[in-house]
Predict the 3D structure of the following.
Amino acid sequence: SASDTPRSRSSARVNSDRAFFSKTNTRFVTFAQVGGGAVAPAFDASGEPLAAPVALDPPDRSYAIEVGLETLLDGKWGAATFRAFHDVSKAHEGYEISASYDYRITRGRFSIAPSVGIAWKDDNLSDYYWGVHAEEASFVLRRYEVEAGLSWEAGLRGSFYLTEHLRIAASANYERLQHSVANSPLVEDPYVFGYFAGVAWTF
């Protein structure tokens, strides 16, 4: 049917890894993670255990301008979106390929749309945002190189029309970071959770 015809478009966006800027560990560090998931006290340059917290500024990262292609295929069965983006600003020079699916259920004034998605991020992109580079490593922040990997996410969007034009909208999204990213010393939790609620007016 006509609704099942793929629609493609070229797109540009700023910075794919929003998670980096919200999931960096706290400012003060007194412990360092070691192999096998064990945790041991950090040591200073002379080899003595740290007696007090040490201020740690998270590594600085630039926003990336990414250009790519999006393809949407939808019908009564739901909607599938495929995306491929590559950095053109030379921030990380990496790429991301992702796919997502959502299905909208409408009952009167109320609608709800669960969604799932996966994303493959190459080693250049992943290591730029989540790795600890050689010039950034210290006795409280070890060198760490992130590899490419696959992450997944699940979300839920809902809306309720108060009038013909006015509606209440809310959404929540859970993203599970890929293994190599989750083990980075810059990461506090192996997931990213976001939510939104607001009022929308349709003209």
